[in-house]
Amino acid sequence: MIHSIFGILCLFLVNAALFGAQPNVVLVITDDQGYGDLGCTGNPIIKTPHTDKLANESVWLDDYHVAPTCSPTRAALISGHWTNRTGVWHTIMGRSMLRANEGTIGQMLQDNGYETGMFGKWHMGDNFPYRPEDRGFKEVYRHGGGGVGQTPDVWDNAYFDGGYFHNGKIVQAKGFCTDVFFNQANKFIRKNVKAKKPFFAYICTNAPHGPFHCPQKYLDMYKGQSDRIASFFGMITNIDDNVGKTRALLKKLGAYENTIFIFTTDNGTASGRQIFNAGMRGQKGSEYDGGHRVPFFLHWPAGGMNKKHVVDTLCHAVDVAPTLLELTGSEKPKGYKFDGTSIASLFKPGAKPEWSERFLVTDSQRVRDPIKWRKSSVMSQGWRLVNGQELYDIEKDPGQTKNLAKENPKQVEKMKAFYDKWWSELEPTFAETTELHIGHEDHPVVSLTSHDWIQEAGTPWNQGHIRSKNPLRRNAKGMKHQGHWALKVLKEGTYLIEVMRWPAESGKAINGELVPGADVPGASKAFRAQVGQRIEAQSATLRLNGKNLQTKTVKDGVSKIVFEAKLTKGKHELSPFFTVPEGELGCYYAVIKTK
Asked: Which domain does 480 fall in, by range?
């Protein structure tokens, strides 16, 4: 293995001398697109010619795994740490924010002289210090939350002609969201090629995540399919066209040869399983391979990685950051210990590095606090131990149909022992809640949304929920608001806490009713196309650390209720609510300002 790594390093040094620069990096990661949602993996219907071409001239990781859902995968990929270690084991409920002490590949590459840009879906925090601009990305153009139209996103956003956060400020754009994100990334690429600066472009589409919208021309490509499949596949084909355009741009700019171009996805398919799933069991959210085995293609002509080379060695998203550091000749931060490992030694065709037996873990928690063995898979090169009870020979039984646990007790115990040790190491970190920072001198105004309520039940994470009278307990009587925002007050002082039912930029009254907004093409109804129902709020109460401190009447026409409170330095739980006929309804939005 040492000789193989030495060979890769020599190859990098030779190419660096030839090109006189570090390789650029373009990493495209799509949302909810599974292994089987590509033509090159066998899908008989989908049209992905550009991605197929990329795959057939790339290193192809054929046993590459991620988390079964969005945020956890992104946290592992960008930090090189297990998702549960980073605090990101859910997509909502305050469990999708990458802890402030975590490193990111963006910061690491920036520290090594790279210009860094992030475009599209971040989904690891919308407030300081969790935003991409706080985590090593200099140029940021994104939507809020986990998708366009989710609660932290610009109000009334849909997949067309939306508003986005450009370096922290809301800007308007024309066109379909995926096209907008790639266009912004391509501007970034042009700028840095012209300036002769190495760059890292992290392009993260929210497509093909629902709601299912895409331009009509792509819907028309899938006539005869269900509306959902036509929209889902149409979004993927639109991504594919953008992949082709970006690769063509790199050629035009003369940056193609010395650019590492990666295409991958964040979890198993959300909608394509009924058409094709490459023989795997499960889909998004599943502990079976269909939930977490995804495509990964890496192309780098200057590095000798421009021909199809299939690597069937088991690997994981935690390996991406250390691998990129090695390929780019970058140094990792002192004292930073990756959970993953560089797999660069596997990339050279014909290389047969010594690769010891390795166990990896993926799980789908999606709960307030992690639960041992919940929807988990312990993976080795030949085996999968699912939920601590089911054992599958993955090479002979890729569909995971025959449980061999009873016939192989020693293998089960071996994998259980690894998991127990893994869990014991991570478990103490679960109590390290990611708090929203209040009182920072550079961030005096903090906007909160129900997307980040911490509670046992689900939260109103999209704007369709906000428009509903009571999305989570429609017929409940005497309901209590169980959620809270976890705050970390950095400076003791008096703060103004504004609470709202609608976001501040809407300007709408707390008890106002909203007419439906315009719909867009596709199988789903846009969140904004729903009626905004009246909640009949009678009063608003400021609850802090479990105590009701102040209550004010909600008068007709008011858009917000303003409380004044002294907050001591340290941790607090903020849970303001409206009193409505059904009981307590949490305030979906709040803004905290230093007085």
From this structure: 436-594
